[in-house]
Automatic annotation (TrEMBL), chain A:
Protein name as annotated: TIGR03943 family protein
Keyword match Isomerase: no
Keywords linked to the UniProt accession: Membrane, Transmembrane, Transmembrane helix
NCBIfam families linked: TIGR03943 family putative permease subunit
Chain ranges of the DUF1980 domain: 187-286
Residues covered by region (Disordered): 266-286
Positions of transmembrane segments: 12-35, 41-59, 111-134
Biased segments, Pro residues type: 277-286
Signal sequence residues: none
InterPro entries assigned to the protein according to its UniProt record, in alphabetical order: DUF1980, DUF1980_C
Taxonomy, superkingdom: Bacteria
Biological source species: Labedella populi
Comp. bias intervals (Low complexity): 266-276
UniProtKB/TrEMBL annotation, chain B:
The keyword Transmembrane helix is assigned to this record: yes
Record's subcellular location: Cell membrane
Official protein name in the record: Permease
Keywords noted in UniProt: Cell membrane, Membrane, Transmembrane, Transmembrane helix
Membrane topology: Multi-pass membrane protein
A Pfam family of this chain: ArsP_1
Record bears the keyword Membrane: yes
Organism annotation: Labedella populi
Length: 286, 338
């Protein structure tokens, strides 16, 4: 395939690769690593359309009209393309950064245009290849530390579902978001003392005490870019000798008075066990 | 720029048959699926790169359906809608015409990524450059999905929803008016897009063929820009601690500046930005929230990369400057009034 064909098909090829990967993630149940599963139907529908349209572009035979005009920019002689095509001509529409330069009559700027266009094309091709071959991975604890655990008003939003203590003591449906909301919303968190707690999350350091860590999960409203870390403090002296930050653990225990009087929350989890656990297939809450 | 109307189509027979390219395209599709299926389930890559790549992909996967929708609507507008169908409902007086165009997003609800190909389609259809810019800036804010989600997030609190709608409308028409005074609006466009418009004038073939050709043209223009823009947005997420911005939240002036900066770098879709910024609601003043919600859909790093497919750097610098000054002033007014 010539450079000219490569340029013509770059956009459709990128859409094809991205759409195939998105469909693959949806089929294998991994789309939730990137976006809220509520968006899946729209993404699947548009990706399917994009695959069909991209294949149509790739499958479309070149017409006589295209052979006559090609993709040459204005003012270019036909024999320049047919004979010795310059890379800047062929890539002049690869991205907007280079497109203005491509029409510039000054050789230095046209050369720069060619280099930028080629670099953009290579970057996009490598990016698409990486999307195709790299295994999906959720964002890590490092992002949670950048984003400040429990800073989110997801936990106090009045439009959000208010979390209350259940009458029958069944907390099996509670995730870390519910527990964190309960602690944040409650005017008397002490009422939670002795309430059983069990949850899965990853370990992040606590700002309250070196003897505690925060059992953390990301809550994703729409996509991973808006992921907000929420968590519950777990009192576990020596935790940093047993677990690395970002390790996934299951904590089983009950709420108790926080040993550190200066802690933000007067209660924390006093664990009966903290066990390593594999990362869940979909590691976020929504 | 004079209206670029399509000349009478001269149908030409394809030079080649569909069979060989169709088989080739099918093989390419099969190879892609096979590579994806056979790729390793575990692979050690540096954590920082992994976070960057995941965050970049999350914006890309979120944006791509809207970009495809925008391209399809662009094809609908350019190829399938007969001349005059949209235009007959628009007033001829330029100011009123732009005001109506700024409300077109109510009927074409695509977020800002999808609006770029749609705005390109409007220019190719014959809309003037200032009219297309007015649509491009207004539509991501003045559309039903964005209004509903903003209401769901904030209700009528502090007038945030009303300020957002009014701010988006005024800003779009202000920028549209400024460029309507330009002596040569075509010079606002990149040479490559001008050339694409000229080629569109001489478009031939069946409507289906033109649609496929248009999909190819728009995909080639938009996709590299989208990937670059999403990559910048992903890198910023990994490199910039949000705590640094949050610390500025309670100052009436700095809070506006901080969230405007956040809007420029975070590149979140206007359909959901209200839910995102809600998480900063207890920290930042309402004026800062309004500035974020008006500026973000107009200019951010991802969107600027996309808009660069169509408009010159000078034009985008001017649009960014006007948008920043306007939303900054709007945010301060909201903080003072509130």
């Amino acid at each position: 395939m010539s450079a000219e064909h490569g340029s013509r098909f770059l956009g459709a090829g990128l859409i094809l690769v991205m759409s195939v990967c998105a469909l693959w993630l949806a089929v294998t149940g991994q789309l939730g690593i990137y976006v809220n599963p509520g968006n899946t139907p729209f993404i699947v529908a548009m990706s399917a359309i994009a695959v069909i349209a991209s294949v149509a572009v790739l499958a479309r035979p070149r017409t006589g009209h295209e052979h006559e005009h090609g993709d040459e920019p204005a003012g270019h002689e036909h024999d320049a393309l047919a004979g010795h095509p310059h890379v800047e001509d062929l890539l002049h529409e690869v991205d907007g950064t280079t497109s203005a330069l491509a029409g510039d009559p000054r050789p230095a700027r046209r050369a720069l245009s060619g280099v930028l266009g080629a670099a953009t094309a290579v970057f996009c091709a490598v990016f698409a290849l990486a999307f195709l071959v790299l295994p999906p991975r959720a964002i890590s604890a490092a992002v949670a530390e950048i984003r400040d655990v429990n800073a989110s008003t997801l936990l106090t939003d009045p439009g959000d579902q208010t979390v209350e203590l259940t009458a029958n003591g069944d907390y099996s449906t509670y995730g870390l978001r519910e527990w964190a909301s309960l602690l944040r919303q409650s005017t008397h968190p002490e009422s939670l003392i002795a309430t059983p707690f069990e949850a899965i999350g990853f370990v992040t350091p606590s700002e309250d005490s070196a003897d505690s860590f925060v059992l953390t999960r990301f809550v994703v409203s729409h996509c991973a870019i808006d992921a907000q870390p929420v968590g519950v403090t777990v009192y576990s002296p020596g935790w940093d000798e047993r677990f690395e930050v970002g390790s996934w653990v299951t904590v089983d225990g009950a709420f108790a008075v926080a040993p550190d009087a200066s802690a933000v929350s007067p209660v924390s989890v006093s664990p009966e066990s903290v066990d390593p656990t594999p990362e869940p297939d979909v590691p976020y809450e929504y | 720029m004079p209206p670029l109307q399509r000349s009478a189509a001269t149908v030409r027979k394809p030079a080649g048959s569909w069979r060989a390219p169709a088989i080739g395209a099918g093989i390419v599709l099969a190879i892609l699926i096979a590579i994806r299926a056979l790729s390793p389930e575990q692979l050690d890559v540096p954590q920082a790169f992994s976070d960057f790549f995941t965050l970049t992909l999350s914006v890309l996967i979120e944006s791509l359906p809207f970009v495809v929708l925008g391209v399809l609507l662009s094809i609908l507008v350019q190829v399938w809608l007969p001349a005059g169908v949209i235009e007959r409902f628009l007033p001829s007086q330029p100011f009123l015409r732009r005001a109506c165009i700024s409300l077109l997003g109510m009927f074409l609800p695509v977020c800002e990524c999808g609006n770029v190909p749609l705005a390109r389609g409007l220019i190719m259809r014959g809309f003037t450059v200032p009219e297309s810019i007015t649509f491009l800036i207004a539509a991501p804010i003045l559309n039903p999905i964005v209004i509903v989600t903003t209401h769901a997030a904030f209700g009528w609190d502090s007038g945030i929803l009303v300020w957002r709608i009014l701010g988006g409308f005024v800003l779009a028409n202000l920028i549209g008016y400024v460029y309507s005074r330009h002596p040569r609006p075509a010079s606002l466009l990149t040479p490559a897009f001008e050339e694409a418009c000229r080629r569109e004038e001489h478009s031939h073939g069946t409507r289906v063929g033109q649609s496929i050709e248009q999909f190819q043209t728009e995909a080639r223009a938009v996709m590299p820009a989208l990937i670059i823009g999403c990559s910048i947005a992903g890198a910023v997420q990994v490199l910039v601690p949000r705590a640094a911005l949050v610390e500025l939240g309670t100052n009436p002036v700095l809070s506006v500046a901080a969230l405007m900066l956040l809007a420029l770098v975070i590149s979140i879709c206007s359909n959901v930005d209200a839910f995102f910024i809600l998480s900063f609601g207890s920290t930042f003043l309402p004026g800062a929230i309004v500035a974020f919600l008006v500026l973000g859909p107009v200019v951010d790093v991802k969107l600027l990369a996309l808009m660069r497919t169509t408009f010159t750097t000078k034009t985008l610098t001017q649009i960014t400057l006007i948008a920043v000054l306007f939303t900054g002033a709007l945010g301060l007014v909201v903080n003072l009034v509130g």
